Amino acid sequence: MKAKVKKVLAVIIVLLVAFGWYATCLGVGPVESIKDTMKFGLDINGGVYVVLEADQEEVAKLSDEDLKQVMEQTRAVLNNRVNAMGISEATVSIEGTDRLRVEMPGVDNAEEAIQQIGQTAQLSFLLADGTVVLTGEDVKDAGIDTDTENGGYKINLEFTSSGADKFTEGTRKASSGNVQVNEVFQQVGVDKTAIVIMLDNNIVTAPTCKQTIAQASCEITSAGGGYSKEDASNTAALIKGGALPISLHDITSSVQTATIGEDALNKSVVAGLIGLGLVFLLMILVYNILGLFADIALMLYVLIVLWVMVLMGTVLTLPGIAGIILSIGMAVDANVIIFSRIKEEIAKGKTVRVAVDQGFKNALTTVLDAQITTLIAAVVLYEIGSTTVRGFALTLMIGIVVSIFTAVVITQLFVGIIAESKRFGKNKFFGVSEDGVPKKLIKREFSFLKNRKIFYAISTCIIVAGLVFSLVRGFNYGIDFTGGTMMQIDMGKAVSSEEVKDSLKEYDLKDLSVVLSGKNNEQVIIKTVNALDSEARQDVIRTLGDKFGITEKDVLASEEFGPTVGKELKTNAVKAVLIAAICMLLYIIFRFKSWKYGVASVAGLVHDVLIVLSFYAIFHVTINNPFIAGILTVVGYSINDTIVVFDRIRENRKLHHRKQSNEEIINHSINQTIDRSVMTSLTTLVGMLALFFMVSTSIREFVLPLIVGVLVGTYSSVFLCSPMFYEMSKNDGKSKYVRENKGK
Asked: Residue 493 in contact with residue 519, Cβ under 8 Å?
């Protein structure tokens, strides 16, 4: 590409970045701002989600194919039900093989909504004596209309052809007045001429029938002024929902108000911008003009990630924001690797222009290997993780792919222009002194292998301490692992935790904790290992209302996890790490053509996971669902760092195996890449720390294992993985006689 074309293209990119950020933040013409365009999750917009599990006895009777069909039919029925309730953008999706996740954004009365969708038994039309007339399968449609005769609203029903025949016969019997009301219906005042519509064991409505209705439709009216619109809509929704092919019960549910979500979003955006600004500043301070152009590429990177998410219809969650911030660190890493290689080529005596071309070529393999191994972890996380964790994994995957493009294409364009410039194409602008010595953050060379036994001992002590704490005291599992309930309530005034506990004594809540939060401690966070369903939570709220004057509107958030969910989370965590480790091992063996690199890398992963677990055991930090995402991301990040070091060892062994010993090559390789390891860790930590200190607890739960993992991953790749590779390869190249007689 000609120099003039490159310059024009660079100017266009700068203008596009400036315009893109302006349009993203404020909107331009028909293009709305990213805040108005992006789809946000329930943890930001507020709303309700509930996970329903099929009855396991019924599941056991079905083949895999039949279960798949039944769950799809059930999903369709529930989808009709929530749509009929008029909830905008409600979604029903299948999770795993026997679960359904229902999300209802912007729901005001959360508990009522959960009860509505959670009614799972078959719909039945009965005579007053309990005889079944027809079932929900015979109902074709249900809706509402204004009731001009009685006022208010009425419910319109439409039946299938077979349902119409059954309904005709049922109304004939009911209208005759000869039906004997059974004891159950007598207790609730059901008339002998009624057609009782029941869902589960509850009466939806029991309209009376004055005459035989010999047609495929009918109206349900209320003589006392008609139904209210809400009552008519809810009743029609339950009827239209029809008969569920299989019984369901809720195992997890969450309620989040928009107030908390919007506050968390605003704080996340501010924290993200501060983190991004600090990364930009750090890049300029360390890499000068190269850092400036890397920052332009990073700004384009963030724009592309955000708008790709919009075009894909991806739902942005709070964990997803953490994923974007983390992926920025990954994007910086690619630039740091490239800049380091360019400096090394200049130090070898090459011209700046040649060094830039060669540096990009040498760095490309490292960048791809490092990012692909991280991508493996993200893919596994997406496949195995829960819906919330998937949002984190998806943004991370998008970020990794885009970072390769911006680093390899955009950064290369700008750096190439500088290299061809008479004014800037000089050593000092590429981090190299005029005498050819590259500037380094860490100028001294260390003998890492010499002290490897000390590093082994340090890691062993930490892991043993973690094991002791985990056996003696146990891990501090959150309610999503143990099963339980969390409620965050705005009390409207400062209260003591003991007052709240005293008011809840009648419920015998196990491991009850009440934590004060919010401005002036006017909010309380109540946690218990009792898995309280929606009805039980309402009872708790009513009790607190009698004592403190709160209502359901004061409930800012609530979550409930069944005990089976926690067991699956633990299983999935182990499964995810094992699958990711195996996939990475195979990839590394394939790319490096040696099992030793792969085994040393995976040994480092095991070490990092054990160290993070030890940290959680020693400091009794809560382990919950986000922890899985954190652990797997730690695995991906750690392997990323190790790959960079191993790639340099592999290269140096090919070039210098005859001139230097294996120990000298490995030590030199680590020292060559130490600046990159430190710089990447710094840029990643800067963004993570901003999120940790400025945003909500839910984000901190994602960020904490990442912060610990970044530090541990950097430590292991430098001080452990390379020494372990040395232990396995120190006899490489020696004769068979020397290997067999070593130590004799």
From this structure: no
DSSP result, 59-82: HHTS-HHHHHHHHHHHHHHHHHHH
Cβ atoms of 254 and 558 within 8 Å: the answer is: yes
Strand partners, 134: 125
- Pairing verdict, β 555-561 and 248-256: antiparallel
pLDDT at 386: 63
The mean-pLDDT minimum among 291-300, 388-397, 441-450, 478-487 falls in 388-397
How far is residue 693's CA from residue 262's CA, in Å, rounded to a whole number?
A: 17
What are 262's two structure tokens?
């919007």
| 204: Cβ contacts below 8 Å, ≥ 6 apart | 123, 197, 198, 235, 238, 239
3-state secondary structure of 143: strand
Q: Which of 211, 210, 207, 229 is nearest to 220 (CA)?
A: 207
Per-residue 3-state assignment (H helix, E strand, C coil) for 288-324:
HHHHHHHHHHHHHHHHHHHHHHHHCCCEECHHHHHHH
d(C-alpha 654, C-alpha 255), whole Å: 59
Please say whether the beta carbons of 395 and 316 come within 8 A: yes
Which letter does DSSP use for residue 385 in this model?
A: S
Q: Please name the residue that has the structure tokens 């007052």.
A: 499
Residue 291, token pair as written in the block? 């850092």
pTM more than 0.70? yes
- How many angstroms separate the Cα of 308 from the Cα of each of 38, 394, 395, 397? 10, 11, 10, 12
- Band the pLDDT of 263: cuts 50, 70, 90: confident
| pLDDT tens-digit series, residues 56-108 | 888 998 898 889 888 887 887 777 667 766 666 678 888 878 888 888 877 76
Q: How many residues does the chain have?
A: 744
In the block, tokens 């491991």 appear at 511
Residue 402 · residue 305 · CB < 8 Å? yes
The yes-or-no verdict on residue 196 having pLDDT over 70 is yes
If one counts every other C-beta atom within 10 angstroms of the C-beta of residue 445, the result is 13
Q: How far apart are CA 96 and CA 314, in angstroms?
A: 20
Strands, sheet with 139-146, edge to edge from the N-terminal-most edge strand: 139-146, 153-159, 217-220
Cβ atoms of 449 and 667 closer than 8 Å? yes
The band of 174, judged by pLDDT with boundaries at 50, 70 and 90, is: very high
Among 454, 389, 401, 355, CA closest to 723: 454
Residues facing 195 on adjacent strands:
127
Q: Residue 599's closest CA among 649, 646, 652?
A: 646
Instruction: Please check whether residue 261 is in contact with residue 45, taking contact to mean a CB–CB distance below 8 angstroms.
Output: yes
Q: In 311-437, at which residue ranges do the beta strands (DSSP E only) sit?
A: 315-316
Report yes or no: 688 and 278 within 8 Å, Cβ to Cβ: no
Residues 6+ apart with CB under 8 A from 33: 23, 24, 25, 26, 27
Give the three-class secondary structure for 182.
coil
8 Å CB contact between 403 and 297: no
The top-scoring range by mean pLDDT among 93-97, 166-170, 198-202, 621-625 is 166-170
Q: Return the SS3 of 672.
A: helix
Q: Would strands 484-490 and 555-561 be described as parallel, antiparallel, or unpaired?
A: antiparallel
Rounded Cα distance, 332 and 634, in Å: 17
Structure tokens at 739: 């290997």
How many Å apart are CA 91 and CA 106, to the nearest integer?
Answer: 12
Q: CA-CA distance, 573 to 380, in Å (whole number)?
A: 11
d(C-alpha 495, C-alpha 489), whole Å: 11
Q: Can you read off the two tokens belonging to residue 121?
A: 């038994």
Query: What are residue 437's phi and psi, to 5 degrees?
Result: -95, 120
**Chain-centroid distance, C-alpha 719:** 31
**Nearest by Cα to 248 from 69, 115, 80, 63:** 115
Sequence-ordered list of residues with C-beta below 8 angstroms from that of 335, at least 6 positions apart, any chain: 283, 294, 297, 298, 407, 411
Is the CB of residue 248 less than 8 Å from the CB of residue 74? yes
Report the alpha-carbon distance of residue 425 to residue 157 in Å, rounded: 79
